Amino acid sequence: MNKYASKHNLVDLVSAGMDECGLPAKGARYIAAISGGVDSMVLLWILARALKMRVVAAHINYGKRGAESDADEELVRLFCSENNIPLEVLDRADADGKWNAGSGNFQNRARIIRREFLLSVKNRYDARAIFLAHHKNDQIETIFQKLLRGAAPEKWTGMKRFDPPWMRPLLEASKDELNQFAREQVIRYRTDRSNLESNYSRNMLRNDVFPLFDQAYPAWEKHIMGLSRIGHIHAAMLDYITGEVTVSRADKSNVASSDTSPEEKTDQMDGNYPFLTVLKRTEWLSLSTELQLPVARNWIEKQTGYTGWSKGEVVRLEDLKKLQTGKGVYFDEGFFVQRDREYYVLAKSRVTGVRHELSLDRLSHKPMIAGGFIFAENRYDPSLKTGVLQLNRQALTDTLLLRSWEKGDRIQPMGMAGTQSVADLLTNRKISSAQKNESLVLVSFEGKVHAVIFPHCLDSGEVGTIAEHTRCHTEGQRVLLIKKPDHFS
């Protein structure tokens, strides 16, 4: 094996990172996101040529740079052909509409569609993980942007090397090392000239700001990387303090106090309180003022996964201090915090606008609760006729969106030849007007409806309707199982 004129032996760096993350180099299949640039082409060379892994390349032709975009795709195709690497490319005609449709800036839309595409390829090949070519310079940019946006210290950790299913084995390698490796191994790659333009914030930092830092503060990159460790320390301390002022709901025998209204008690029995811990009011208020809001926010984040705090939501956390028993503070993401005597209880809100991102890859390790329903991975059992929904896992991408249904949503119900609006479906199922507003849809990020979920079980035992394309035919097929928390079939 060649030795490189750089800090790391990149082949050993990738191999050792996989070992530490429990990813076998032999036998398992993996997906690698390949743009045609030096970072991803070096990664593909290491995976396929040096480590001889079963890797599938996934490329997206954005079509934003005309002939140059096509040349990127041609380079990737040629390398894969020469090395017998399976290649998946997002269909150009399909891509053109996606990149130019919708609201928001191009980068945000591209990020969502790129994620959806990579997860769909992983699902199709039943792959173990998706490899991304992020490197040390990308990590520095990520942490620096968090600083500029005012993120709290516990958010300075940066990108994780392995955040299932995403694997980033090159985070410790610099851009210079990747360039050096490509030269020595004669790996062909293309340069995206749009990266040389300071149109976006990352490009502006990379092209205009960081060169000035290099001159004025030669060790600045090392210090920025050091913030990642500080971030991990802060996160650990915050978790410890949060643990000291919370208690398991199982250890609190009377979450629904005598002051709780009958309707609120019913909500608890119906699964409106699926969260595992409660916040002890006296202990929380005894913390220093500087710690109270970060701890309350951490308590909520750990259970809901919500991290997109607005300034208004942070201000509303302050209202917890003067909250009366039985009253609650509502948040925009479908949950609220209610005071129950000497405790704060996190509950699922009945207001419209529910929106949860579901990572199905994690369900193989542990079920999760979202929108008042349990989501778990299972095997298809045709004997389960009521009370549950069973969706063919192979028909789903690894990341889905559970949200309130919207006007214009359409589904092809199981057994029907055509589609119908979700509004008509709910009417046909005789869902009451009040319950219609609480009904949910499980969709891809492109808006394809996989299932409609009813807020309450009907007399027939139905909890929802699945789409024809998610129907299971064979006993033992992998399924996404959806059920109410009080349904134990």
Concise description?
The protein has 489 residues and is of the alpha+beta class. It has helices spanning 10-20, 38-50, 67-82, 92-100, 106-125, 136-148, 175-184, 201-216, 220-244, 262-269, 281-285, 289-304, 311-318, 422-428, 433-436; strands at 29-33, 54-59, 87-89, 130-131, 162-163, 166-167, 246-248, 277-280, 328-330, 335-340, 343-348, 355-359, 368-370, 373-379, 388-392, 399-404, 410-411, 420-421, 440-443, 449-453, 464-466, 478-483.
Give the secondary structure arrangement, pairings included.
Elements: H1 10-20, E1 29-33, H2 38-50, E2 54-59, H3 67-82, E3 87-89, H4 92-100, H5 106-125, E4 130-131, H6 136-148, E5 162-163, E6 166-167, H7 175-184, H8 201-216, H9 220-244, E7 246-248, H10 262-269, E8 277-280, H11 281-285, H12 289-304, H13 311-318, E9 328-330, E10 335-340, E11 343-348, E12 355-359, E13 368-370, E14 373-379, E15 388-392, E16 399-404, E17 410-411, E18 420-421, H14 422-428, H15 433-436, E19 440-443, E20 449-453, E21 464-466, E22 478-483
Parallel strand pairs: 1-2, 1-4, 2-3, 4-6
Antiparallel strand pairs: 5-6, 7-8, 8-11, 9-10, 10-11, 12-16, 13-14, 14-22, 15-22, 16-19, 17-18, 19-20, 20-21
Helix pairs in contact: 2-7, 6-9, 9-12
